[in-house]
Write a structure and sequence with these properties.
By secondary structure, the protein is an all-alpha fold. About 75% of the residues lie in helices and about 0% in strands. It has helices at about 1-30, 40-45, 50-55, 60-85, 90-105, 105-115, 125-135, 145-165, 175-195. The protein has 9 helices and no strands. It has a domain at about 60-195: Tetracycline Repressor, domain 2 (Orthogonal Bundle).
Length: about 200
């Protein structure tokens, strides 16, 4: 009986935390980081107001949890798309397309990213760059390049163009993908030509 109760308690805790993170994503998406108070987040759940502090010490901690969850899902989708690519050009295009589609396909995530660019979302950049450098190392063929610089540049371009795309009405995934891919591939080609 104790194991059953413990299992139920753990599921309840996980569900409460997930409800708070979902409500926070929605609140930050509607109001932006600066305008959100803890009570705005709790109002988006069926939980008692004091429950928040059982899971998060403050607004900044839950904001980081939303950013981390959003970043993890974006990286998962992008890595899966890159893994299916059939060469370097497809690798670049598939990664950008997966990221831009992720930004716009879920209205709550789209609103969160759109309202909170510059509020701390950028801390996930090193995680994506490290994974991209690993993926670049695993390519069977492609241009000779500095994987570290390449990975950081590709992620920075994606975040920058993704943020701008999110501000456009309507967002243009195809245009953003084409622009980021062409920009990056042209830069790699120019770098290869200039190499000694």
């Amino acid at each position: 009986m104790t194991e059953l109760a413990t299992g139920r308690r753990e599921r309840t805790k996980a569900a409460n935390r997930a409800a708070l993170v979902d409500a926070a994503r929605d609140a930050f998406g509607r109001l932006g980081y600066d305008a959100v108070a803890v009570r705005d987040i709790v109002r988006g759940t069926d939980l008692a107001s004091g429950t928040f502090y059982n899971y998060f010490p403050d607004k900044d901690a839950i904001f980081r949890a939303v950013v981390d969850a959003t970043g993890a899902e974006a990286r998962r989708r992008v890595r899966a798309a890159r893994a299916r690519a059939g060469g370097f050009e497809q690798f670049v295009e598939a990664g950008y397309r997966a990221y831009f589609e992720f930004i716009v396909e879920d209205p709550a995530t789209f609103a969160f990213v759109r309202r909170n660019i510059g509020a701390g979302i950028e801390h996930v950049l090193p995680l994506g760059a490290a994974e991209l450098a690993e993926d670049l190392a695993g390519l069977a063929e492609g241009p000779a390049l500095d994987r570290d610089y390449c990975a950081h540049a590709m992620v920075a371009v994606g975040i920058g163009i993704g943020a701008r795309m999110a501000e456009r009405e309507p967002p243009d995934v195809d245009g953003a993908t084409r622009f980021a891919t062409d920009l990056f591939l042209a830069g790699i080609a120019a770098s290869a030509r200039a190499a000694p």
